[in-house]
Structure formats: C-alpha cells, structure tokens
Sequence to fold (228 residues):
Amino acid sequence: DTGVSQDPRHKITKRGQNVTFRCDPISEHNRLYWYRQTLGQGPEFLTYFQNEAQLEKSRLLSDRFSAERPKGSFSTLEIQRTEQGDSAMYLCASSPPGSGVEETQYFGPGTRLLVL
Amino acid sequence: AQTVTQSQPEMSVQEAETVTLSCTYDTSESDYYLFWYKQPPSRQMILVIRQEAYKQQNATENRFSVNFQKAAKSFSLKISDSQLGDAAMYFCASRYGNKLVFGAGTILRVKS
Fold:
C-alpha cells in the first residue's frame, strides 16, 4: 500500500493558462474524491467518483473545472483559464469499497497551485 | 446543510501535558460518522480517530480520545502526554453523504 499520490506537488501558472493535476488512489480503492483547501481553511469538497462514474459535483466546481477518471483508476482535474482565485491546495482522497458512510477517506499530499 | 465549527483557531500545550480541542457540528442525519484529521506543516492529512454516532462509547486510539456528546452535537479531541510530533493543524470533519465537511481547523503548538 503506497498511499494516495498526486502530481505535480507544486504548480505555478499565469492567469488564463490551463492546468491539469493527476491523482493515483490507493490500489483497489474504487472511490475517489477531490477537495480544495485555501490557506488557513479546511478542505472543501469538489467532486466524487465511484469507479469511473462521477456521481457528485459541488457548486464550487465551475464550468472551468473538469474532472475525469476514465478507467476507474487514476483521476485528473483540469482547470481552464485559471484565475487568481483558483490559487489553493487541491487534495485528492480515496476510500475502499463498502456501504459508504463509514469508509475512511485517505488523503494524498496535495497539489499546491499558485496563479500569478 | 452540514456544518462543522472549531472555535479555537490556535491552542498551545506543554510537552507531556494534556490538551483538548473542541468541535461542534450540525446535522439532520440520524446515523453519521465524525472524524479528526491531523495535517502537519507541508505534509499530508492523516486520520487520527473516528467515531460512529450510534455508538455510545467514546473512541480511543492510544494517546488520542474523543468526548462525543450526541445531544449537544459536540465532538472534542483529547491528546494525552503531548509530544512534539503532535504539532499540526487538526481538522474535525463530519461525513455527509459522499463527502466530508470540515471545520476551519485548530493549530496545535507543542512547547518543549
């Protein structure tokens, strides 16, 4: 069990550019989550996948954001036309199969995005 | 909507002493789970302890224990015999459907 991994760990981009982040969940975890964490705050939910299906999206996920999990393994989060307000830590988490409510989410190290 | 409130932005504790971090939550669910996560500086978030709401007994994990008061919707974390490695941001979270709802966090400083 190598844990949840995220790539890149840091990204600096200019306003208006597109960025893509990758998350590799713990193997055999079929549930995957994306959260956003701004400085000094707790993480906020963005979206949830069960296998390859995106089952829930937060209102925080504007039209400029898109997430995929094409084969039910790794996931990507893309932000188009980045804005300075997108600067944050983007966290990925995964959890194992189960009835859902009680399953612990295991977090990756995050990707820190800075938009200049 | 689910809300989680941590009213202590920052706490300090002397090494080897005990500290309690507070958390209150609001939920309309009858069965739910509560969690405490630890996020050390520049390191990833790890689970400290979790509590199932239907269980009367408070959860414990080594030096970490919770005081779960269901009627008051309170879920505090007690850290006994504090160690330097306990210094971190601590987040209280409630499971709401498929997502976790987090409080704003409490920074814990441990003094040697």
Summary: The CA atoms of residues 36 and 42 of chain A lie 9 Å apart. The first strand of chain A starts at residue 5 and ends at 7. Chain A touches chain B through 25 residues (CB under 8 Å). The radius of gyration of chain A is 13 Å.
